[in-house]
């Protein structure tokens, strides 16, 4: 019988790698706190309609990538392909808009997309995301971009580039789409099948097509920055001013459109070695689109697998945690009993400890202690139990000291302080 493997495009997080995820998550939680941002968790699946409305029907995500199925009650549900629409749904459903604004949220979430699996492209991946609701000011765009840059800067990564663009408001978009259609008209027959439908419904999406022939056609297409209205232009100028004031370097890339339909005005990407690690922008119409009040918003998603991949490629060391402070060895039945009691008591002092559960010889127990990187060992034999004292061995320098087993305060202190 063949063994069952994980579905294509998914990855197990194995215990040997867990510390890396914890390290990254802890850094990002701390950073979020510094910015006054609080955590939200939303369900793993939503009504499909949320993403049709939120992400946009002409996007790659909705057209090709969603894990959509009918549940046993005949409802169409979708595993979340991204975190923004669910956060907006929760914000509206719990009337968070009635609280003091802005509302600043962060999350860690898996996301599910039926993708062509390749380097940095999985079918279940994970994101750290931020959403800020309620402010239309460019200062928040800059502050949240500064957070994204700091989040990546925490790991000392070089060669990050920040690209920004403005997609304008629906008014600018209409003018741009018309100009784009005019430009694309003569090449219409050469566009891919998906782009032919985009041509009618959402021409700007064609700029995001990954097909070689479409890329060629759009190379010299008009750019939206030439079509944005005065208000959008001022917002973009303000953003650049704030980024300058914060000392954040950026490139204006008028070709960025991003993969989701909800963006208005600012969009940005942070790229490392040709791979987008973080992408986001402003989405001033989405909350209303999903049935909430008219409120502006800004956010981003940062891919954690891609970040970990870059960290690894650049040789950035993530500190390995200490797993076990003390291994208590035992010889025989009575001593097993005492060893188990001792470690259970010591854990109450915050000491990470283990004892033997495999009936190993003392020699094998010490070998095991060494393998798991225990900082200290202590062996409980009959004499030790009778005298209520034992030898505590520091595994890094071999030093031994006699400790009183009735004074756990002292023993715990000794272990913690060394
Ligand atoms: P791309 O252009 O690479 O497909 P995207 O525009 O679809 O990215 P977003 O939807 O903005 O990406 O998601 C934000 C971040 O999530 C990306 O910058 C990336 O780091 C990560 N990400 C997106 N799709 C995947 C995937 N299939 N596998 C791993 N990470 C992903
Ligand atoms: Mg994509």
UniProtKB/TrEMBL annotation:
Gene Ontology CC annotation, any one: cytoplasm
Binding-site residues, L-histidine: 82-84, 113, 127, 131, 258, 262-263
Pfam families per the UniProt record, alphabetical: HGTP_anticodon, tRNA-synt_His
PROSITE patterns for the chain: AA_TRNA_LIGASE_II
Catalytic activity: tRNA(His) + L-histidine + ATP = L-histidyl-tRNA(His) + AMP + diphosphate + H(+)
GO biological process, any: histidyl-tRNA aminoacylation
Database matches in Gene3D superfamilies: Anticodon-binding domain, Bira Bifunctional Protein, Domain 2
Enzyme superclass (EC): ligase
GO molecular function, one term: histidine-tRNA ligase activity
Domain Aminoacyl-transfer RNA synthetases class-II family profile: 1-319
Keyword terms: Aminoacyl-tRNA synthetase, ATP-binding, Cytoplasm, Ligase, Nucleotide-binding, Protein biosynthesis
CDD domains associated with the record: HisRS-like_core, HisRS_anticodon
Localization (cell): Cytoplasm
EC nos: 6.1.1.21
Subunit-level organization: Homodimer.
The family this protein is said to belong to: Belongs to the class-II aminoacyl-tRNA synthetase family.
Protein name: Histidine--tRNA ligase
Species for this entry: Clostridium folliculivorans
Gene responsible for this protein: hisS_1
């Amino acid at each position: 019988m063949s063994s069952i493997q994980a579905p294509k495009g998914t990855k197990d997080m194995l215990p040997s790698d867990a510390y890396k995820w914890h390290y990254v998550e802890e850094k990002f939680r701390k950073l979020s706190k510094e910015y006054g941002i609080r955590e939200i968790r939303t369900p793993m699946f939503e009504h499909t309609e949320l993403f049709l409305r939120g992400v946009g029907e002409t996007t790659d995500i909705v057209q090709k990538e969603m894990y959509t199925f009918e549940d046993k009650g005949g409802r169409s549900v979708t595993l979340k392909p991204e975190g923004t629409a669910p956060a907006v749904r929760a914000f509206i459903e719990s009337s968070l808009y009635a609280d003091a604004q802005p509302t600043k949220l962060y999350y860690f979430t898996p996301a599910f997309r039926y993708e062509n699996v390749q380097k940095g492209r999985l079918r279940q991946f994970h994101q750290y995301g931020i959403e800020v609701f309620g402010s239309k000011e460019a200062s928040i765009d800059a502050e949240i971009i500064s957070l994204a840059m700091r989040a990546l800067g925490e790991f000392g990564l070089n060669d990050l580039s920040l690209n920004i663009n403005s997609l304008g408001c629906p008014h600018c978009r209409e003018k741009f789409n018309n100009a784009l259609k005019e430009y694309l008209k003569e090449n219409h027959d050469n566009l891919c099948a998906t782009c032919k439908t985009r041509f009618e419904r959402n021409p700007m999406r064609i700029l995001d097509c990954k097909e070689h022939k479409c890329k060629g056609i759009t190379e010299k297409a008009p750019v939206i920055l030439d079509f944005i209205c005065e208000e959008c232009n001022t917002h973009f100028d303000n953003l650049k001013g704030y980024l300058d004031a914060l000392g954040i370097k950026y490139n204006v890339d008028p070709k960025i459109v991003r993969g989701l339909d909800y963006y208005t005005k600012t969009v940005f990407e942070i790229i490392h070695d040709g791979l987008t690690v973080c992408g986001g922008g402003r989405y001033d119409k989405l909350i209303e689109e999903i049935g909430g009040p008219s409120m502006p918003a800004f956010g981003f998603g940062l891919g954690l697998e891609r970040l970990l991949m870059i960290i690894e490629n650049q040789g950035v060391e993530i500190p390995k945690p200490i797993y076990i402070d003390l291994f208590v060895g035992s010889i025989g039945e009575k001593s097993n009993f005492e060893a188990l009691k001792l470690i259970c008591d010591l854990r109450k002092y915050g000491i990470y400890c283990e004892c033997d559960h495999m009936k190993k010889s003392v020699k094998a127990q010490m070998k095991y202690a060494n393998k798991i990187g225990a900082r200290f060992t202590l062996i409980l034999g009959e004499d030790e139990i009778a005298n209520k004292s034992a030898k505590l061995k520091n595994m890094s320098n071999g030093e031994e000291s006699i400790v009183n087993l009735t004074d756990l305060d002292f023993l715990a202190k000794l272990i913690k302080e060394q």
